[in-house]
């Protein structure tokens, strides 16, 4: 009996996922993009100070020894960049992707334009939705975070980080787009390097920020579809400050 | 002596305005748009409840009698829609624009695309930056408001209202664009009718919302340049919810 109940539950889950996938495809139908359903993960890491020293991250791929175990002796080693866990792993930048996939089970998607469909937006903060995105010969980490910067007022923060150095990151532009209910919100920026800390990018507010009310306007049945596009950056024609 | 000091002050002000104008033009140089320098006004109206009843605004251009004087007897009359003052004026929708110009000294600008350059972003909340925008045969009211929804955490809210009925408003789409420091933020939506209340649109958060940190990233020397474009709305091709 239990077996049949579980089977029925699994079938219902599959139908639900299929339905969400279909809905996200409708919203971003024009480009025929790949839709990735991303389930939330309750963040187990409560250590914003973990990265306090990391803001001075350098160009050589060295991250200061700001993590919780012994200091890094090999300057080529970087600590685990998974935003979810305080993980003692460290390794070369080239193997960060395989560590994130294998140890933290973060999915990786291919394609220049994808749709990130974050489910269960109602879950309490802190919650993260994370995928990796492989594009233009590089890998990017997309993080959507629900966090209470002001107690009792959760906000959503979305950013894209290059799994590479800041110099490499400067070669790209990423775009996040929300589109629903006759409203459209677009954020375009240069991705930050994963050597800078996700936590500090979010605490600086230098990313797409959504209040709960706006997140609800853009959500459909508790899921938020974010269109993602990455391009190699060119000097913005209407940008004078560069 | 006082005369010379004042003359010198006026010349300095002119140079400063000219410089700001030039800077805004640089940021949005591509389209060669009209730049309008908008000075802040400290909001004298502290009555969010003024519009509580107005949310049920109807299609016939009638606003419920939610203002502070005697009830409206002529259903064609609307109260003053100036977001700055609790003004006892009321009149027909067609004369709202001239009332706002003459009594509240709100500037009106012509052109499909303009740049709204809000100065002195550092001023404490509540502060409003307001202009009217004449375009496609209609007049729009652009409101940028600095407000503390959460005490001690001012945010910026920008929205565009049509000085017309909700049915007329549905025919347009407005776009607000910020572009600086290799970051770009675009908000696109259908304008709300001025018969709905600016205060309620902002308290609902159904507008462009900027945290202080993002506002600083997009500001240049205390001024925020917002590119504005209005178009007649067409069904968004990638929008399924309409």
UniProtKB/TrEMBL annotation, chains A, B:
Keywords: Metal-binding, Ubl conjugation pathway, Zinc, Zinc-finger
Membrane spanning stretches: none
Swiss-Prot/TrEMBL catalytic activity: S-ubiquitinyl-[E2 ubiquitin-conjugating enzyme]-L-cysteine + [acceptor protein]-L-lysine = [E2 ubiquitin-conjugating enzyme]-L-cysteine + N(6)-ubiquitinyl-[acceptor protein]-L-lysine
Pfam families assigned: Sina_TRAF (PF03145), Sina_ZnF (PF21361)
Pathway in which the depicted protein is active: Protein modification; protein ubiquitination
CDD domains, sorted: Sina
Single GO biological process annotation from the record: proteasome-mediated ubiquitin-dependent protein catabolic process
Highest taxon in the source lineage: Eukaryota
GO CC entries: cytoplasm
Residue intervals of the Seven-in-absentia protein TRAF-like domain: 134-228
Keyword Signal annotated: no
Enzyme Commission number: 2.3.2.27
A GO molecular-function annotation: zinc ion binding
Keyword Protease part of the UniProt annotation: no
Assigned protein family: Belongs to the SINA (Seven in absentia) family.
Function: E3 ubiquitin-protein ligase that mediates ubiquitination and subsequent proteasomal degradation of target proteins. E3 ubiquitin ligases accept ubiquitin from an E2 ubiquitin-conjugating enzyme in the form of a thioester and then directly transfers the ubiquitin to targeted substrates.
Written domain comment of the UniProt record: The SBD domain (substrate-binding domain) mediates the interaction with substrate proteins. It is related to the TRAF family.
Protein name per Swiss-Prot or TrEMBL: E3 ubiquitin-protein ligase
Gene: Siah3
């Amino acid at each position: 009996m239990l077996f049949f109940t579980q089977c029925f539950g699994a079938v219902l889950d599959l139908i639900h996922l299929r339905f969400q996938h279909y809905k996200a495809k409708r919203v971003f139908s024009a480009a025929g993009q790949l839709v990735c359903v991303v389930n939330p993960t309750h963040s187990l890491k409560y250590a914003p100070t973990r990265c306090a020293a990391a803001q001075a991250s350098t160009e050589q791929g060295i991250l200061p020894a700001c993590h919780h175990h012994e200091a890094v002796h090999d300057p080529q080693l970087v600590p685990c960049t998974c935003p979810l866990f305080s993980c003692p792993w460290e390794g070369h930048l080239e193997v960060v992707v395989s560590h994130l996939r294998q140890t933290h089970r973060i999915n990786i998607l291919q394609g220049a334009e994808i749709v990130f469909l974050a489910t269960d937006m109602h879950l309490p903060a802190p919650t993260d939705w994370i995928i990796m995105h492989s594009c233009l010969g590089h890998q990017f980490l997309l993080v959507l975070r629900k966090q209470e910067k002001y107690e009792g007022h959760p906000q959503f923060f979305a950013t894209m980080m290059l799994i590479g150095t800041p110099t490499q990151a400067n070669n790209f532009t990423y775009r996040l787009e929300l589109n629903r209910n006759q409203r459209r919100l677009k954020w375009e920026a240069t991705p930050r390097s994963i050597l800078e800390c996700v936590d500090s990018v979010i605490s600086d507010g230098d990313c797409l920020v959504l209040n709960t009310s706006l997140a609800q306007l853009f959500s459909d049945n508790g899921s938020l579809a974010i269109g993602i596009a990455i391009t190699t950056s060119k000097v913005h024609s209407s940008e004078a400050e560069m």
